[in-house]
Amino acid sequence: MGVIDQSRCPVKTGSIYPEPYASDMKGRSSLRLGDAGGLTQFGANLVMLEPGAQSSLRHWHLNEDEFVMVTEGECTLVQDEGATVMRPGDCAAFPAGDGNGHHFVNRTDRMARFLVVGTRSRREVATYSDVDLVLELSEGKARFSYRDGTPWEGPR
Predict the structure, then answer these.
(1) What per-residue confidence (pLDDT) applies to 1?
(2) Which of 112, 124, 140, 156 has a 20 to 30 Å separation from 40 between CA atoms?
(3) What angle do CA 147, 148, 150 make, to 5 degrees?
(4) For the sheet containing 91-94, what is the strand order?
(5) What is the pLDDT of residue 16?
(6) HEC assignment per residue over 16-85
(7) pLDDT of residue 14
């Protein structure tokens, strides 16, 4: 494929999260660079956070590695041990199976962008650190449950 024309990349907005969490992702969008390039073994997305937006609920992956590099603006990485401000060129890595939940928040008054590259596993489990929610992805289908495995029916 070669060069990817970012102006023609699919843009994803919103979230697959159930409410009330889907509404928390307002101001987050991403360019699906890997999809535009025909990649199948890993994903590469340019995530854009408007002021006040967050990348996701704080989470960790059972089977997928993630790598992040800030490309514009300033993001605050929030993990179990606290918050770290990240600026262009700063990188973070999240190995599969590490239960230290993470997400990024734009606490500034201007746009922030970061590149995220991650494994594409056939089956993935994402656990959300601050809410009783687990996402299981299998063959492209999403299933939400509580941590005890019962089907998700809304916040408890």
Answers:
(1) 66
(2) 112
(3) 100
(4) 11-13, 28-32, 42-49, 112-119, 66-72, 91-94
(5) 93
(6) CCCCCCHHHHCCEEEEEHHHHCCCCCEEEEEEEECCCCECCCCEEECCCCEEEEEEECCEEEEECCEEEE
(7) 86
Which residues does the chain have with pLDDT short of 50? none
Q: Which residues of 85-117 are buried (b: 16+ CB within 10 A; e: fewer)?
A: ebeeebebebeeeeeebbbbbbbeeeebbbbbb
Distance between CA atoms of residues 69 and 21, nearest Å: 25
Written as six digits, the tokens of 25 are 């992702």
Gyration radius (Cα) of the chain, Å: 15
Instruction: Report yes or no: 59 and 144 within 8 Å, Cβ to Cβ.
Output: no
C-alpha 64/C-alpha 40 separation (Å) is 14
